[in-house]
């Protein structure tokens, strides 16, 4: 008797719990769908809906790059290559190369964090597929360009001011903001950020 | 007439099998549908992450820790942050600790949702998976707003976190929790109390309390066997001592204590507890800085340290040795998934082949975390 009762009890249980589940599923016919039909059939580009901090493909505003190399040092996989030359007489720093290897980049954001002006920053762009690996190396310098010199007080050049505003907003988003970084020179007593990193790296080899 | 010859069959499950949660291989010796033994073969996802730490330095290693366990990367971030802080004796600001707690608990929600979702999918119930993933996406949206990435967060830094909570985020997070709690009940109605589902999970892969301890299981796998051990509660780190929450343990309601259903229900209940912690954390979060001043050129004094974090997969240990230079001399991670792999060979004896999938899913192993 007990076994038979249990048998029918099990069947009853199964049917009722299935119906409970079905009720949940059915209720979803009434709700708004959550799926996004990427890439087409969406009202706005996905890129435009991403939050401000989204870490997409890197971009560099060379107009406000000070050539401090903080980003190059911060990158754990060395995918940034910058070449700067300082004219001995005029003391002007010229940036002749600024390449970022997008293939190697892991979008960690460690490079944009120490940048004093927010020149190097993540965009909301993520569609980076391409046919050749060569074209994945983003070369930002076409003609050698003079490095930006931070001014005391607000920027007066009206061409650069909006770019710098954009950059500083980006920098200030980070926890330590613009204060901890003073033109790329850290106040921790060390001569320059990571000045002896290279020696150590060499010693480590 | 001579009798038919019978023999044991050796099967390979994996490395590329949709239900092994990553690149994992099991060598199964089976007699018909009953397994004699399933021997896990790990190592397919070994990426030398511990060795990489010795090459990239303390700050540079943070994004790599995301790859140790990509499903709950906040915990690995926190583990590395805490280990480095302990080496250099750095105090994380209070708000930074709260940001960490909030981020990790949201990550725990996301991780457990994936676990309970794939649990259903692995035994053939596709719908709950989509429900769990939908909720996880919403959590990922929140985390993305917080740190800019959905999976490889790199949110924490040595000495705190990289970004403060964005404006309006707290309200959004609280609104999400209000939305999430009824969804959890709905999810339970959808699958957790389904009779067929319970029958599939109950009395499968029973781990007794002694066994769980002897095999070094951690996290929900250990608590599923009825042992109340949670690092957040028993060895409180960060700000967890300030929160009021329970540690759910398996009770054997549907079968024997320590079966797959118990482990599953521990995760479901932990979701509720995480929501509780999150509400308290979001309410109590103090004002102030979130990142201590840590030099870029980070050189902790020579020494060694071991810290423990309660990750979504249990007690995660980070061991770091510093020789006083800017590069750690040795780093080791102790992960819950690796410990869980050890018991599979024993539990699989006498199990049906179809139940092996249930067993793996109930142990919630993540392949990259096994091998690192
Ligand atoms: S995002 Fe990370 S990996 Fe990419 S260039 Fe910057 S530091 Fe290097
Ligand atoms: S850290 Fe910024 S300013 Fe310095 S070199 Fe890099 S992009 Fe230019």
Describe this structure in words.
The complex is a heterodimer of chains A (205) and B (372). Residues 178-205 of chain A have low confidence and may be disordered. Chain A has 5 helices and 6 strands, in the order ααβαβββββαα. The radius of gyration of chain A is 27 Å and the shape is elongated. In chain A, 27% of the residues lie in helices and 13% in strands. The N and C termini of chain A lie far apart (79 Å). In chain A, a hairpin with a 6-residue loop joins β2 (80-86) and β3. Chain A is an alpha+beta fold. By secondary structure, chain B is an alpha+beta fold. Chain B has 2 domains: 9-41, no CATH class; 50-356, Cytochrome-c3 Hydrogenase, chain B (Orthogonal Bundle), CATH 1.10.645. Chain B is 49% helix and 13% strand. The longest helix of chain B is centred in the N-terminal third of the chain and has 29 residues, at 94-122. The chains are: A alpha+beta (205), B alpha+beta (372). The structure holds iron/sulfur cluster (SF4) (2 copies). One iron/sulfur cluster is lined by residues 60, 65-71, 82, 115-117, 119-120, 184 of chain A.
Q: Tell me the domain tally of chain B.
A: 2
Percentage of residues in DSSP E strands of chain A = 5-15%
Order of helices and strands of chain A: HHEHEEEEEHH
- Report the structural category of chain A: alpha+beta
Structural class of chain B: alpha+beta
Tell me the name of the CATH homologous superfamily of the largest domain in chain B. Cytochrome-c3 Hydrogenase, chain B
> Which shape of chain A, going by the Cα principal axes?
elongated
What's the CATH class of the largest domain in chain B, please?
A: Mainly Alpha
The count of DSSP E runs of length 2 or more, i.e. the number of strands of chain A, is 6
What's the story with the biggest beta sheet of chain B?
Answer: 3 strands, antiparallel
Oligomer: heterodimer
State the distance separating the first and last CA atoms of chain A. 79 Å
Helix content of chain A: 25-40%
Number of helices, counting only DSSP H or I runs of 4 residues or more of chain B: 15
CATH architecture of the domain at 51-175 and 191-204 in chain A: 2-Layer Sandwich
CATH class of the domain at 51-175 and 191-204 in chain A reads Alpha Beta
Poorly predicted regions of chain A are 178-205
Number-wise, the strands of chain B total: 8
| Main pleated-sheet profile of chain A | 4 strands, antiparallel
Number of helices of chain A: 5
Could you state the order of secondary-structure elements of chain B as H and E? EEEHHHHHEEHHHHHHEEEHHHH
